[in-house]
Amino acid sequence: MGLYLKLLAGAIQPRDVFIPMASLIVGTGLSALQWPVDGALFSSCIILVFLGQLALNLASNYQQAFVNNRKDPQTNLHQHALTSQMALRRLSYISAMIFAVLLWLLIKTSVGFSATIALLTVALLVLFATAIRLKTLYSNQQLYSYSKRHLAAYATGNALLPCLISFYLQTAQITDYVLAVAFCVALLALVAGLSKHINEFIKCHPLLNSDNLPPSLITMLVTQFVLLIITIALTTLAIYALNIPWLALIYILALPALFAANITVKHIPEADIAKAQLTKVQLAYFAFWVLFIVGVMIR
Predict the structure, then answer these.
(1) Cα 22 from Cα 254, distance rounded (Å)
(2) pLDDT at position 3, please?
(3) Among the residues of the chain, which ranges form H helices?
(4) Residues 53, 237: Cα–Cα separation, whole Å
(5) Do 217 and 226 contact (CB within 8 A), yes or no?
(6) What Å distances lie between residue 220 and 6, 74, 147, 202, 259, CA to CA?
(7) Which of 174, 198, 222 is the last residue of a domain?
């Protein structure tokens, strides 16, 4: 029991919750434009976000301890390491199953199942289960080599689907403005996902300097910058076209941190700096959408 508690404690990493939590807040906040928010339902969704992220973090810890540094799959582990390995994998799978069951119960008791929510839920659970399984089989470097698919799954599972599902749970429908904003939420999540890729790339290439950056790193940095510009443009357009309160533009207060993270990594491509900027991007993502929703709700 002591080992399991230590493993669970080690998997509590608050910064990893910022992306799905912000997406949940956006979906719930937008629902307030047409219906009073159910506080108990919102609290239940928060608990589910933490539980889902706990399962992912357990799988990530397993990946870091037993997959990333694995040289020979046939290498025999001593008894303590083998026990920890089995416990980590078991905990991640159990947490994932509990998350799936509780999500199903929450949907059944709140709005019931329709074709729309069933499709959204299945898509989320498939992405979630796939992420858990892949983390226990492949290293970060192997997964990030499939960058486009990895980023698409990251943005869909952490941003688009949580936003849409949380909105549907409050209103039992999907509207045009939540689809538009959810798309913007997913675009900004791609920026955060690229920060993870950049951090992993720099960690694997420690002897980089700003005068001679590899083309692949330059491509990621430029793509990240362009995605920021596109997200800002589309979010502003959505505010105008969908008659969302103009005070939602208060999100611009989070923009300096997002741009600064991109510029800092470009000029100082070091592992410690990249990791710090990753945290900054995650915090700025959270601030961006919380400020947006604050502006929406102050009418």
Answers:
(1) 13
(2) 76
(3) 2-10, 18-31, 39-62, 79-110, 115-135, 140-144, 147-155, 161-171, 176-204, 215-241, 255-267, 271-297
(4) 32
(5) no
(6) 36, 35, 10, 12, 14
(7) 174
Tokens in use for 277?
Answer: 């900027």
Cβ atoms of residues 51 and 98 within 8 Å: yes
Over the chain (299 residues), what is each successive 10-residue block's mean pLDDT? 78 86 95 88 94 89 73 51 79 91 92 88 91 80 73 93 95 92 96 91 84 90 96 95 90 96 93 93 96 88
d(CA 206, CA 125): 36
Q: How many CB atoms lie within 10 A of CB 289?
A: 29
Q: Is residue 262 part of a domain?
A: yes
Range of the domain at 232: 175-299
- In terms of phi and psi (left: phi > 0; alpha: psi -120 to 50; beta: otherwise), the region of 172 is left
Tokens of 202: 């720099």
Distance in Å from the first CA to the final CA of the chain: 51
The answer to whether 7 and 91 are in contact (CB under 8 A) is yes
Short-list 105, 112, 104, 117, CA closest to 27: 117
Reported pTM = 0.90
Number of domain units in the chain: 2
Here the tokens at position 97 are: 């199953």
Query: How high is the pLDDT of residue 66?
Result: 75
Same domain, 166 and 180: no
- Cα 30 to Cα 25, 40, 65, 172, 176: the distances in Å are 8, 17, 40, 13, 11
Cα separation, 166 vs 159, whole angstroms? 11
**Distance (Å, rounded) from C-alpha 211 to C-alpha 81?**
43
Do 148 and 292 fall within a single domain? no
Locate 69 and state its tokens.
């540094």
Cα→Cα distances 293→23, 60, 69, 248, Å: 10, 31, 42, 7
